[in-house]
Specification:
The protein is an alpha/beta fold. Helix content is 50%, strand content 7%. 28% of the residues are buried.
Length: 694
């Protein structure tokens, strides 16, 4: 049967740079001199999942052409919820395929479905699929293990109460045995509802192999330990026996997971945002079952060839870090570990090329430019074999990335700034911290914001030193470079405290952008001649993008700017705003209930979502109507037309509503009639209910 190729159809929906990425990755994985592992490190938001989808389509076409009957795609990410969503997106066949988020230990019950399918999508999560530990797992996993042990050892010694107690874990005693005996028709067999024979045979083979290794090492076998613990659990249950039971269940789950990996036969493995579980990429040390399982999957090789592994991450290794930063992350070591996983046997050659390039840079005065360029290109060639990256700037025709470069005044350094540096530097020297000049240049009030940094940790430790503490207190009491809580509580003006931030504050706060509820529209539907949005300075106001390698910068910038914006808002409302007056201020929007009835709901109509009202007053539609009438499109004309349309819809209901009495502010929209005559109440239709309440 001839099948339609999936690749061309799938690639039609991708952008040009995404198609280029798919084609390049496929060529590197399946072309001349192929690699088995590849990293797509495209910048955030450039569609790495779409690239994976395109690659899946091409891999399916390739494997089908090679005569492969069953194609298994394994998708691994950190969250089961994300896995469930993305597996559906990665289904390029347009047909129902085996697509399930599962555990390795549950695959024995699903394998018959995999065997019956042409294309299978299996999603796994590191926490449940690889990290098994000594945990007892779920009830159906333990029932599955029971029947696999029957297959491996026979049922002669597995019928007594101690065996069921051993595998019971947290299940209820009464229903546990019935659950096990009714589990998948009580036997290993074929067909839907049964345990797959291949996994059962692999489980038996791995259990017996483990027993043989135990005997060779002179240790009790897992069967001997199992039978001894089960016999003890026939009588009085001891805590030590329960701990042994948990350990045995953990061992059986590892054997089951190992058997499941061997039975899975993966063709393509996708690791999405792998930096969140990068430990799986490293070679196991000692009895590290988690990494052993993962490496078995990544290095799977069948008669059809070696499985390919695609890594997706915008941040595949840590950014440049310094020793003084929190956590002491080693970005270079992280980079090397990632390349080791990708390059495999080529790692040694790459390290030599990398060291050669480094030596050329260090000895730049004695190395010719041609030599330096040659060594640099050798490193690049090696990396391009296993990784690619597209950045937003490269994805746009003019390489602008929709960004506009604007020169901002560098700002002025004040006397207070210099005094702040003197204080900061003196404190840093006294506590033995590294050079802090760059921190002072990048962030205001560093001693107030540098939580998690080496200098702040050392300062806290020094506070308990009876010799050093008085000296530090004397330096800090001068007050330079520290936020003054008394001044902040009194809502006094706060100097940005940093030359760079002073320029940003003037640029952002000086335009009165703090008065806007939202960003000005890039393509406004109508003019706003008498509003804050009409200001020339605000009409072109847009977001600012601040780059920094210091974690302290976002916190400091956000704190200082938001405080000053809030201060200006409060002073606009109350020129004498302070801590006492702020406490007395009432909220602008209050919704209360008294005695089960709504109260103070007069503003509710302003925030109550109303689909009917939204349809009547869609500003884009109203603007189009006004243009059709050759009328001016302004905020006033838009509001006028909206009032006309709403008034027209409400007209049928006005006749039935009371016309006298005070307005009811409980949110019902009715008047309280002063008359003693019975009031007529009307029921609003669904299409206008929202509009009426508003």
């Amino acid at each position: 049967m001839t099948r339609e190729l999936l690749g061309p159809k799938t690639l039609e929906g991708l952008k040009a740079f995404q198609v280029d990425t798919v084609e390049y990755v496929f060529e590197r994985m399946y072309g001349k001199d192929p690699v088995h592992k590849f990293l797509v490190a495209d910048e955030v938001g450039l569609g790495k999942t779409l690239v994976a989808r395109g690659l899946i389509a091409k891999v399916i076409d390739y494997q089908r052409a090679a005569g492969v009957k069953r194609i298994d795609i394994v998708y691994i990410c950190s969250s089961a919820d994300i896995a469930q969503q993305n597996v559906a997106k990665l289904n390029v066949t347009g047909q129902k395929v085996f697509s399930r988020a599962t555990r390795l230990t549950k695959l024995a019950g699903d394998l018959h479905e995999l065997k019956s399918g042409d294309v299978n999508l299996i999603s796994l999560t590191p926490g449940t699929s690889f990290h098994l530990g000594d945990t007892t797992g779920q009830k159906d996993e333990r029932a599955l293990i029971y029947w696999l042990l029957v297959h491996a050892w026979g049922s002669m010694r597995l019928r007594h109460a101690g065996v069921f107690r051993l595998l019971q874990a947290g299940a209820g005693a009464e229903g546990w045995r019935r659950f096990v005996e009714g589990f998948w028709l009580q036997k290993v067999g074929h067909g839907k509802g049964h345990i797959d024979r291949d996994i059962a045979d692999l489980f038996k083979k791995n259990v017996l192999a483990g027993e043989q290794q135990d005997r060779a090492a002179g240790s009790p076998t897992i069967r001997e330990r199992f039978e001894r613990t089960a016999d003890r659990l026939r009588g009085k249950v001891r805590r030590e026996d329960l701990r042994n039971a948990s350990r045995l269940i953990g061992e059986f789950r590892k054997i089951l997971a190992q058997s499941s990996v061997e039975a899975l036969e993966p063709d393509l493995i996708i690791l999405d945002e792998f930096q969140r579980f990068r430990h799986l990429l490293e070679e196991p040390v000692g009895e590290d079952d988690t990494r052993t399982l993962a490496q078995t999957l990544f290095n799977y090789e069948s008669e059809d060839g070696h499985a390919r592994t695609l890594l997706l991450s915008a941040t595949p290794y840590k950014m440049y870090t310094l020793a003084a930063e929190s956590g002491h992350d080693d970005h270079y070591k992280d980079f090397v570990k990632t390349t080791e996983f990708l390059l495999g046997a080529e790692t040694k050659a790459f390290r030599e090329e990398l060291h050669s390039y480094r030596d050329a840079i260090v000895d730049l005065g004695n190395v010719s430019p041609d030599t330096l360029v040659r060594r640099k290109r050798a490193v690049e060639r090696r990396l391009k074999r296993v990784m690619t990256r597209t950045e937003r700037l490269a994805a746009t025709q003019d390489r602008s990335g929709m960004l506009q470069t604007k020169s901002v005044s560098p700002g002025r350094v004040t006397t207070a700034d210099a005094q702040s540096f003197v204080t900061f530097d003196e404190v840093s020297r006294k506590v033995g911290a590294a050079d802090t000049v760059e921190y002072w240049k990048s962030a205001p009030y560093p001693l107030s914001f540098m939580d998690g940094y080496d200098v702040k940790r050392r300062l806290r430790d020094a506070a308990s030193n009876p010799l050093l503490a008085p000296e530090l207190a004397s330096v800090i009491e001068r007050g330079y470079g520290l936020l003054d809580p008394v001044a902040l509580d009194a809502y006094e003006a706060l100097d940005p405290g940093n030359a760079r931030l002073r320029s940003i504050a003037a640029d952002v706060l000086g335009t009165k952008a703090w008065r806007l509820l939202w960003m000005p529209a890039s393509l406004p539907y109508y003019d706003t001649p008498r509003s804050d949005f009409s200001s020339p300075a605000l009409r072109s106001f847009t977001k600012r993008l601040i780059f920094s390698s210091w974690q302290v910068v976002p916190q400091a910038v956000a704190s200082v700017l938001s405080y000053e914006a809030e201060r200006r808002m409060m002073l606009a409302r109350d020129p004498k705003a302070n801590a006492e007056s702020r406490a007395k201020m009432r909220s602008l929007l209050q919704f209360r209930s008294a005695g089960g009835r709504p109260g103070a709901m007069s503003a509710f109509g302003l925030v109550n979502p109303s689909p009917a009202l939204a349809r009547l007053t869609d500003p884009l539609e109203l603007a189009a109507i006004l243009r059709g009438r050759k009328a001016k499109v302004t905020a006033e004309t838009i509001v006028g037309l909206a009032e006309e349309r709403v008034s027209k819809e409400l007209r049928p209901y006005r006749k039935a509503a009371p016309q006298d009495g005070a307005i009811d502010e409980t949110g019902t929209g009715r008047r309280r009639s002063c008359s003693t005559e019975p009031q007529t109440r009307t029921r609003s239709t669904p299409s206008t209910a929202g509009a009426m309440s508003t």
